[in-house]
Amino acid sequence: MSLLVVDASVAAKWFVNEEFTEEAVRLYESEERFDAPEYLLLEMDSIFAKRIRRRELTRAEVDRARILLREGQTTFHPVAPIQDMAFELAVETRCTVYDCLYLALAILLGGQVVTADRKCYSALARGPYAGQVVWIQHV
User: Fold this and answer.
1) Which residue from 126, 84, 135 is spatially nearest to 105, judged by alpha carbons?
2) Which domain holds residue 96?
3) What is the pTM of this model?
């Protein structure tokens, strides 16, 4: 398996039951190592805060999930060194700069972004970066 850069659409499913949770958990339980921009932690905190407000997760569950995420099998990379590349990719691909942080990291590390974000996947899968993105069900 190639090096995998995991995005928030996949990481969220490690802790929240949604569509494709089974696939995301199976990937997580495979003990594969993952890479991600540090931005993933902000995205996850936003997801967790929303789930607490909706009463879908308790504060204790979120506190535990935040620890697992930070101490788990994901290596986090600073955003500053990839920010300009992410911007250029966003202009080129019409994806968000945020989504392109994952793509930029995958390109630099020689890996693939694994995602469950249909919009991002569709935009990338039909362009020059198709080899850099993989759908959660195809990992």
Assistant:
1) 84
2) 4-138
3) 0.94
What digits encode the pLDDT tens for the residues 3-40?
A: 999 999 999 999 999 999 999 999 999 978 999 999 99
Cα diameter, the chain: 43
Give the tens place of pLDDT for each residue, 105-117: 999 999 999 999 9
Buried b (16+ CB within 10 A) or exposed e, 54-75: eeebeeeebeebeeebeeeebe
**Measured distance CA(48)–CA(115) in Å, rounded:** 18
Q: Indicate which CATH number applies to the domain containing 85.
A: 3.40.50.1010
Query: What's the total number of domains in the chain?
Result: 1
Nearest to 8 by CA among 42, 36, 40: 40
- C-alpha to C-alpha distance for 64 and 52, rounded to whole angstroms: 13
CA gap 43, 57 in Å, rounded: 16
Instruction: Say if residues 20 and 136 touch (Cβ distance below 8 Å).
Output: yes
